[in-house]
Amino acid sequence: MSSALTTPPDAPPSTAPATPRETLIYTIAGLLRGIRHVAVGASSPIPAAGAMLCRALAERDGDPRVRLSILGSVQHNFFTNGSVELFDCAGQGRIDAFFLGGGQIDGRGNVNLVGAGPYPQSKVRWPGSFGSAYLYFTVPRVILFREEHSPRVLVDKVDFISAPGVSEEGVYRTGGPKALLTSMALFDFDPGRPGFRLRSIHPGHDLSEVRAATGFTFQADDSPAVTPPPDAETLALLRGRVLGELSETYPAFADTLRAETAEAGALQKEEALHK
Amino acid sequence: MELNRLAELVPTGACLALPVDYAGVSMAMTLPLIRHGGDDLHLVCVPTGGLQVDMLIGAGKVRLVETSAVSLGEAGGAPCFNRAVRDGAIDLRDATCPAIHAGLLAAQKGAPFTAMRGLIGTDVLANRPDWRVIDNPFGTGGDPVALIPPIVPDVAIFHCPVADRLGNVWIGRRRELAAMAYAAKLTIVTVERISDRPLLETEEMAAGTLPALYVDEIAVAPKGARPYGLWGEYGPDTAELKRYAAAARSTEGFADYMTAIVGEMA
């Protein structure tokens, strides 16, 4: 392992325990493991950080190079054929992973980016479907990511299908949802049922809380696993190199992460004093 | 004023194509369009819309929006668009980004449609009676494919860094601007400046040049994309976008904001 990767230019990284957001970033990096090309939409700092950490880990471990396309970024976007190029790439299978959010996500993996209530006169209108109605079909590993874990987001049935979780037999489909990650838990998607299965709950939450906050039914073990936080070495990589890369595209968000880490460090010191 | 004359080239009921916020939005044309352009516009967002689209809707200029999304990006949702949807004040043709590109591509090629993957089983497709689904004629049965008819804008409007005296425009790597111009019947471009040096003179510049063949009108409008940024020239003014987002939450706030920017321009 190269020490140059883990040492930031200025101060050594904090050794405070992982913050909830750092655990999310680490979880995303794990979900991306083994991919060659991941695309990240504009204004998606946590997925971008996860993709950057995945790239750094692959480099550290001598795995094949990970390509990263961040839409709307100059430094991390190599497309020269306009906004159509992402979709052309995806259509050919040149993109392995992508992230989708959603105003609503339901238990069958359907995503709604259009609005709540009857269409077209939505009571609450969201921006629109963007590329989801295409990318959900053509990108093999779509990760559904939404920090808010609540019954208004994770619904039994979406009001509008921007992109369906599964398709009828005979419909051309090389892509679809693989996992759903929120601020509370991580689910795997099973297209056979179709439905979600709880893989792990993030530290500080429990199963009854997850059930109460989820508007759809899902499978779960009686005592689900706890989402593992990053080990010290990975955390140092995240707080050093990855944060530096992230600052180029998402300076404000990188500052927020630094502040959260500092807070966690202060809390750790305080707790040590009281022991 | 030159921009007002160009706005008058957009007739009532026109299909008007406008680019995504980072590609080069001619914000300089927004007020001229509101005051001198036609009404009942059919906007085509390539492939999404932002501030300019929201302002045109807020000003009551728009009958129909064909788009993959409308938002103010980091500054949040598009207030006038969201309000118009809720009130049923505009018609919608919700799309997905590659379908907008597919429609422009069909127009560019003079083809009757472009076939595309995805879409099957979505409510996007279910709400687009102007699209068709056929079984892949090259397949062995089944395999439904969506067909997107040509999008032929009456007018396309965008903003670029530079044009030359021959009417060529430098679009760099923002190829969606070329796609708009290829498809549109009339293309209006505002630029930061005019170069005395022909853009097609060197291979380096020629590769990113939209030839005059596809450009009908050019006007100089310095900082013409503001508060959006222009690639290679200046960044977006996110604080101003947020100020708009907050103001336009009410119709009164929107009206006050627009009155204020008219004052600034006078």
Write up what this structure looks like.
The complex is a heterodimer of chains A (275) and B (266). Chain A is of the alpha/beta class and 275 residues long. Helices cover 35% and strands 17% of the residues of chain A. Chain A has a single domain, classed as Glutaconate Coenzyme A-transferase (3-Layer(aba) Sandwich), CATH 3.40.1080. In chain A, the strands form 4 sheets. Chain A has a 6-stranded mixed sheet, with helices on both faces. In chain A, α2 crosses α3 and α7 packs antiparallel against α8 (251-274). The two termini of chain A are 35 Å apart. Chain B has 2 domains: 2-95 and 151-259, 3-Layer(aba) Sandwich (Glutaconate Coenzyme A-transferase); 114-149, no CATH class. Chain B is built from 10 helices and 12 strands. In chain B, strands 1, 2, 3, 4, 8, 9, 10, 11 and 12 form a 9-stranded mixed sheet that branches. A 3-stranded antiparallel sheet of chain B has the order 5-7-6. The model of chain B has no long low-confidence stretch (mean pLDDT 97).
Q: What separation lies between the terminal Cα atoms of chain B?
A: 12 Å
Count of individual helical segments of chain B: 10
Q: Would you identify the CATH architecture of chain A?
A: 3-Layer(aba) Sandwich
Largest sheet of chain A: 6 strands, mixed
Q: What structural class do the secondary elements of chain B suggest?
A: alpha/beta
State the CATH class of chain A.
Alpha Beta
* Mean pLDDT across every amino acid position of chain B: 97
CATH topology of the largest domain in chain B: Glutaconate Coenzyme A-transferase
Spans of chain A of at least 5 consecutive residues whose pLDDT stays below 50 are 1-9
Order of helices and strands of chain A: HHEHEHEEEEEHEEEEEHEHH
Number of strands of chain A: 13
Number of domains of chain B: 2
